[in-house]
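re: the backbone from monday

yeah here it is again, tokenized this time
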């Protein structure tokens, strides 16, 4: 019975909302992976950015609507791109694009939406 209600509600969610949620999870996963790879914590990131840890915690909750300025500040603090935008060829997922541009031969575990982790290899 509950699944009928869930299915009915799920069909009412707009494609924009679904995509926003998907990218939101991807961004948070990307930032967590970068922090983990650098053996850093949210507290370390907050200190580096001159922010309260509670603000960083809000940012790293899925559903946060990042501004471009905030994403740039995060990239500078983390030392790696969080997203990239390609102006050539076919559009690709910004998160996957960020992994291939920023890591070279380095491995960073990539977890998507709490599921099993994958290893992604980047190339320059």
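seq for it, each position gets an aa:
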């Amino acid at each position: 019975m509950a699944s009928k209600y869930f299915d009915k509600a799920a069909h009412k969610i707009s494609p924009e909302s679904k995509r926003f949620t998907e990218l939101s999870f991807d961004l948070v996963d990307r930032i967590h992976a970068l922090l983990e790879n650098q053996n850093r914590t949210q507290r370390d990131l907050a200190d580096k950015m001159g922010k309260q840890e509670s603000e960083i915690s809000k940012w790293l909750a899925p559903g946060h609507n990042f501004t471009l300025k905030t994403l740039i500040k995060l990239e500078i603090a983390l030392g790696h791109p969080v997203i990239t935008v390609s102006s050539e060829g076919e559009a690709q997922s910004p998160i996957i694009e960020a992994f291939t541009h920023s890591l070279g031969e380095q491995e960073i575990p990539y977890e998507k939406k709490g599921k099993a982790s994958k290893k992604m290899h980047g190339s320059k």
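The CA atoms of residues 101 and 117 lie 20 Å apart. The mean pLDDT is 78.
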